[in-house]
Amino acid sequence: MNSRLHLCILGSGSKGNAAILEGPRSSLMIDCGLSFQETVHRCQHCSVDLQRISALLLTHEHVDHTRGAISWYKHFGTTIISTAETAMARKSLSQLPIECIGHSDTFEISGICIQSFPTSHDAADPIGFRFSLKDPAEKELDTVGFCTDTGYLTIEACNALYGCRILGIEANHDKDMLTGGTYPAFLKERVGGRRGHLSNCQTAEALPSLLSKKTEAVVALHLSEQNNRPQLCMQALAEAAGAIAVNTHLARTTDGSLSVYVASQDHPLFIQ
Asked: Is residue 211 part of a domain?
């Protein structure tokens, strides 16, 4: 059996979020915040087999994570999974046959073990995920962590994200850009608050405690167009990971064992 997971970030940012996790037997979609047509287009661009997608997992109900969910379900009938609170938080979602999980559950889909964990965002019951492939003795063969839209990393998030081979983690804003920017005071407080979004600095501070020798890739997610720049994010995360910037969207350690990527709102990113 192929013991590797692959992560394709179709788009990440306030205009729409969606990702594909490819496993040996099927693929999973994480959030569906792009339009149906754009989601299909970007899947095709990354050679993602649409018929292999067996489930759609929602992190929370905000429209930039759920915009395309109804159209996706109408076209493919894919199983949709979220917490009960998320399913009821938006009228459009409450009309879908969503399979509900708790924010600290472990379950399996087509051989992929999925662990949910609570995040901290101004949503009904937001969650992140740890995905893993295991051998018959329950030893992890490969792991991917996915955490976006959270004002801080919960204890559960830190535990679940530690040592993942691929770590997708939010780095939404630069604190100075947010403070000096044009957002009204209430929005600055929301974004930078405990139920808002992780800053470059917060993510950089957390990275050393999340990385292990197994970690091969870190992906910065959900960059703000107004309050961040890829080069600022890359500078912070690359330094924290001991990597050297190759360009504004990629850095690597000198031995090549770890790469740091900055995901884009407009262009897919495929990580093997």
From this structure: yes
Low-confidence ranges of the chain (pLDDT < 70): 1
Residues in the chain: 272
Kindly report, residue by residue over 24-51, the tens digit of the pLDDT.
999 999 999 999 999 999 999 999 999 9
pTM of the model: 0.97
CATH number of the domain enclosing 138: 3.60.15.10
1 in any annotated domain: no
Please tell me the predicted confidence (pLDDT) of residue 129.
Answer: 98
Please indicate, yes or no, if residue 41 is contained in any of the structural domains.
yes
Domain span including residue 221? 6-271
106 Cβ contact partners less than 8 Å away, ≥ 6 residues apart: 113, 114, 115, 116
Residue 154 and residue 160: Cα distance in Å, rounded? 10
Q: What are the start-end ranges of the H helices in 15-80? A: 36-45, 63-66, 69-76
Beta strands in 12-51 (DSSP E): 18-22, 27-32
The Cα-based distances of 206 to 59, 200, 203, 238, 257 in angstroms read: 21, 10, 5, 13, 19
Count of domains observed in the chain:
1
Cβ distance 17 to 222 under 8 Å? yes
pLDDT, tens digit, 9 for 90 and up, residues 109-122: 999 999 999 999 99
Residues 131 and 143 sit within 8 Å (Cβ to Cβ): yes
Long-range CB pairs of 230-237 (<8 Å, 24+ gap) are 230/262, 230/264, 232/174, 232/177, 232/200, 233/171, 233/174, 233/200, 233/262, 234/260, 234/262, 236/171, 236/200, 236/201, 236/203, 236/204, 237/171, 237/200, 237/203, 237/204, 237/207, 237/262
